[in-house]
Amino acid sequence: MNADNPEIDFSAEEAFGQELDRIRAEIIAARGAGDARYIHAVITAQRGLEAGGRAALAVSLFPPAWCAGTAMLATAKILENMELGHNILHGQWDWLGDPAVHSSTWEWDFLTPAEAWKHTHNHLHHTWTNVVGLDRDLGYVVFRMSADQRWQPRHLAQPLYNLLLAPLFEWGIALYDLEPDAVAAGRKPPRAFLTDLTGLLTKATCQLTKDYVLFPLFAGPSALPCLLGNLTANTVRNLWTHTIIFCGHFPQGVQTFTEEHIEGETRGEWYLRQVQGSANIEGGPLFHILSGNLGHQIEHHAFPDLPSNRYAEIAPRVREICERYGIPYVTGPLWKQYGSTWGRILRYAVPSR
To answer: The Fatty acid desaturase domain covers which part of the protein (predicted)?
Structure first.
């Protein structure tokens, strides 16, 4: 862990891990019809909102129709990206055996292809959570978010980078998933990069054509307001996604680790790193659905393949276990986590003492 987050005197990692393993086993055994109804209800709601939004934007020369259509489409895109795409691609619903809701078949309404995202997010990020040099999500390569990262002059501009990244977040993720830094370092073959680039260009062409050519053309006289509505909906989705993800990973109290810390890591120590490398965001049921239940980021990092609707149920138990073992459980309202994240971005933009 870095110097800003002192080591915890913790000698019962395996007992801690066993308690979390029991929670996991209980939820796996309890999955059933109620969970299936939940995910299908979200899919139905998302598709209804998208259809309604598209229909309203088709007649969006009328300002009320534009406002309603844009709001519905933005909400649909948020639901599809956060509660559906992110969680389905984690394999949370593979146990249903439904090919329409399966990590191997789902392609989301996002620029980056599902397969590329599963590699960088599911494999690299969730395996090496907050390990500097291994977790490429840490600061998204461009940022410096830990004293364990070497400061470079370009980091002085990272507050500006963050302002630009937020409305263009899907583009940032798409470029990040190409792993150009890994190619430059010799860890990724150029041929693999070109294959991924082809996949991204194909997916991006489909996405851009759908939102900025086909649907505006279908809108006829409302083509321009329809295009602007699609652009606004995508921007709102990007701003929301960026906010939730950054607030779940970078507030004050979230710890980072070096490669030395994970040598010989046990199951219990892996759980400990997931908890210490995450932060929760407090809110009501609607907030958690719209955030893909990533307001429970601690539970998501500990149990990335459990159904997201179960996180609210197990969060109090995880928190109680952490308190019993003296492990910090970082949580707070959105405004607090957002301000804390910006504080970290500003703090590490300058050289550490």
So the answer is: 66-331
Q: Which domain holds residue 266?
A: 13-30+109-347
Answer whether 349's CB lies under 8 Å from 144's CB. Answer: yes
DSSP string, 198-240: HHHHHHHHHHHHIIIIIHHHHTGGGHHHHHHHHHHHHHHHHHH
Across all residues in the chain, what is the average pLDDT?
93
Judge whether residue 9 has pLDDT over 50: no
Q: How far is residue 339's CA from residue 7's CA, in Å, rounded to a whole number?
A: 25
> Do 155 and 348 form a contact (C-beta atoms < 8 A)?
yes
Distance, in Å, from the CA atom of 61 to the CA atom of 82, rounded to the nearest integer, reads: 30
When divided into structural domains, the chain yields a total of: 1
**Backbone φ, ψ for residue 279 (5° rounding):** -140, 140
Q: Tens digit of pLDDT for each residue in 205-227? A: 999 999 999 999 999 999 999 99
